[in-house]
Amino acid sequence: MDCRIVVDTNVLVGAALNAADGDNREVLRRCFRQLAQPLIGAALFHEYEDLFDRPEPLARSPLSSEERQGLFAAFLSVCEWVKVYYLWRPNLPDEGHNHIVELAIAGGADAIVTKNTRESRGGELRFPHLRILTPSEFIQAC
Asked: Do residues 114 and 132 lie in contact, with contact meaning Cβ atoms separated by under 8 Å?
């Protein structure tokens, strides 16, 4: 494994929604090929699960419901479960994204891969080793 990463929900859902958005899908391909180790914890699992259970926004997906569930199950099968013992709160302006930083720190992640880097940057605490990357930046870096 080259990179330990936390894949934000918007990247996973983006891969299921848009066949033309190759960067999101390439992030998942690298996870499936074991070129990157995705990390998951309880809060992120529930966030993924909630989005994959809702009819919207995935109703626009070119994948059928069964294919989306298969993608989700396949992705979960390559994730490493990380138990978060320490909460770094408040850190980010958007409380809903603190759990992603906490997971990344607990799992020794190299990067958080997200389409919305603004939500994951700007926290009160600094973690110099943790990069916040868009999918295209991740593809170039790892």
From this structure: yes
CA distances from 100 to 7, 74, 103 (A): 9, 21, 5
CB within 8 A of 98, min separation 6: which ones?
87, 88, 89, 90, 91, 92
- What CA dihedral angle connects 49, 55, 56 and 62, to 10 degrees? 100
Helices (H) and strands (E) in the chain, counts: 7, 5
- DSSP code, position 93: S
Q: Which domains does the chain have, with CATH numbers?
A: 3-140 (3.40.50.1010)
Summarised one tens digit per residue, pLDDT across range 3-31 is: 999 999 999 988 888 766 689 999 999 99
Scanning the structure block, which residue is given the tokens 């709160």? 89
| Residue 5, burial from CB neighbour count under 10 angstroms (0-12, 13-18, 19+) | buried
Q: What pTM value is reported for the model? A: 0.87
CB 35 within 8 A of CB 139: no
Q: Please say whether the beta carbons of 88 and 102 come within 8 A.
A: yes
